[in-house]
Write a structure and sequence with these properties.
five-stranded antiparallel sheet; globular; alpha+beta
């Protein structure tokens, strides 16, 4: 029997299909955090951009499993795929989709490195394995913290300094951790619970300052977090004055401008009192930003998705305003991050949205709903600015084809891979950004708004009905919905790419009317517009070349 909600789901899929017809005729890491009382719908939200020049965009899946006594798990380093060692399995591990498990536990990260002498090549647990083993073994955020820190204590920590965001359907924590190198096994760490009415962020720079040692409800830490710093000469003073950040990841110019700058962009967007911290980002003042703040208004999932698309627009660091944006106002700068002119070193801005992103998500944990439909990973591949965030439910068991591991890789193009389709479109748009982004935003908004306003409410309603009347069918239902949405969005994006290359080929802009490219009465293409460059760019040419191009 087709329920009213089923009709709504069918309608959303129809929107995707109609979009295809109309077009035929016509991604270092950042975490943004929103407490449940700071969000419009009461969900905990965590975003993550996996920013790496060598990371392929795909959605990971670990099935729930039972393990026999004595079973071992191989630990393979996430970044390099190198074998690090083995640890005993637990009796039962939970289902994991991406960075969220079946109990709505969600873990993300950003790497800050810290003091080089504290890296331990002999440790077994790297940061990526900590995330996915932690998800497989935890029902709550607090339990995940214990699992992760116990593993490091017992088997050693292989990676450099790291910030983890660890959330469940009730609360969210930031944990910062760094190894002890040859000076001891395990790691020193601190975890702070973010208040429900606050927002927080971290972006490749340690951010925890003073530790509230007496607040056992909202703070956890390793017993030697201060004494080890004293032993190593990183800190002198009283415990109350100890700063984890200052001891283990001191600020430098890159950490301020390239890392804390992204946190500033988020805080400044949602709290007008944060603007004065621009002087801190620029290294002119010393007062650090707080770990978390209260926003001026509550945030929606759309707010967080859009914040992941940020290039400092509207701030002193706006990447569309300097000469590097070029004639098409492109807010991207190719690597490396710094460059030298006449012996002086300069930087490119490092915004939240960046070209080398492998995949990105905004995770929502929704405690008022059953777990299988309560947890949503709004998932997309490549640069957040030009991706579509599609809702992947934590109860699904089959990864959609467009996100599946093995569907292409970084050296193998695939027309059914969301990573490659979005990269294809984005790499066209970088070269004519201020024109193409308008076409991209139109389709992006159409899809995401339909998910927000039609699809998700329909899945929530129908999913609850299935769980009440026919619970064994909830997984097939979620698998079908997620596959149709993800694969349909990827197909829609492919059609968008075809439209863009036709419209903007060779620097021209095709003329359109009523959603179709215009033809002459004889059926040929109407002569296109030739917009050239903007006045500012032409002026720059004259200023740098004098009369070289002057016509008299």
């Amino acid at each position: 029997m087709k329920t009213k909600s089923s009709v709504l789901l069918t309608a959303v899929i129809a929107v995707l299909s109609l979009g295809l017809l109309s077009l035929e005729s016509a991604m270092a890491c950042t975490n943004l955090i929103v407490g449940k009382k700071a969000s419009k719908d009461g969900s905990v939200m965590v975003s993550y951009a996996a920013d790496s020049h060598t990371l392929y965009g795909e959605l990971y899946r670990y099935a729930a499993a039972d393990h026999q006594p004595g079973a071992m798990r191989k630990i393979i380093e996430w970044d390099t795929h190198k074998y690090l060692g083995e640890i005993p399995e637990v009796a039962h591990t939970y289902s994991v989709v991406g960075n969220m498990n079946e109990h709505q536990v969600l873990i993300a990260e950003s790497t800050w490195g810290g003091r080089k002498e504290l890296e331990d090549p002999n440790g077994i647990m790297d940061y990526g394995s900590l995330i996915y083993v932690g998800l497989q073994r935890s029902k709550t955020a607090r339990e995940a913290i214990k699992v992760m820190t116990d593993l490091v204590e017992k088997y050693g920590y292989h990676s450099s300094g790291e910030s983890f965001t660890i959330a469940d359907k009730n609360e969210v924590w930031v944990m910062e951790l760094i190894g002890k190198g040859k000076y001891g096994k395990g790691a020193v760490w601190v975890a702070i619970r973010i208040p429900d009415d606050a927002i927080c962020a971290h972006a490749n720079q340690s951010r925890i300052q003073q530790i509230p040692f007496k607040d056992k409800k909202n703070c956890m830490y390793s017993k030697d977090v201060v004494s080890f710093a004293r032993k190593m000469g990183f800190f002198k003073g009283k415990d109350k004055d100890f700063s984890f950040q200052a001891a283990y990841n001191p600020y430098d110019a890159g950490g301020l401008r390239g890392c804390e700058g992204r946190v500033y962009a988020f805080f400044n967007k949602f709290n007008k009192d944060m603007r004065h911290y621009i002087s801190f980002i620029e290294g002119k003042t010393k007062e650090p930003m707080p770990l978390y703040i209260k926003p001026d208004r509550k945030l929606s999932v759309a707010d967080v998705r859009d914040m992941m698309r940020d290039h400092f627009e509207g701030t002193d660091l706006d990447m569309t305003k300097d000469v590097g944006a070029g004639p098409y106002v492109c807010p991207y700068r190719w690597r490396p991050m710094t460059f030298k002119v006449d012996g002086k070193e300069y930087c490119n801005e490092r915004a939240i949205a960046t070209q080398q992103t492998g995949w990105v998500f905004v995770g929502q944990t929704r405690g008022w709903l059953p777990d299988k439909i309560g947890g949503i990973l709004w998932f997309g591949c490549d640069d957040a600015d030009m991706t579509v965030f599609t809702p992947m439910y934590c109860g699904l068991t089959e990864i959609p084809e467009c996100y599946k591991e093995g569907n292409g890789d970084l050296l193998t193009f695939s027309w059914t891979s969301a990573f490659w389709i979005h990269n294809w479109v984005a790499n066209m748009a970088y070269n004519k950004y201020n024109y193409m982004i308008k076409d991209i935003r139109k389709i992006q908004r159409e899809l995401e708004n339909s998910f927000d306003n039609v699809l998700v409410p329909a899945v929530d309603k129908e999913g609850q009905e299935i769980l009440e009347k026919d619970p064994q069918n909830i997984v097939p239902f979620l698998n079908k919905v997620c596959a149709e949405v993800a694969n349909g969005s990827t197909a829609r994006w492919k059609q968008l790419g075809e439209y863009l290359i036709v419209k903007y080929i060779d620097g021209n802009v095709k003329k359109e009317k009523d959603g179709k490219f215009q033809r002459t009465p004889e059926g040929l293409a109407v002569s296109p517009d030739q917009p050239g460059y903007n006045e500012e760019y032409y002026r720059h040419i004259v200023e740098t070349t004098g009369d070289h191009f002057l016509m008299e």
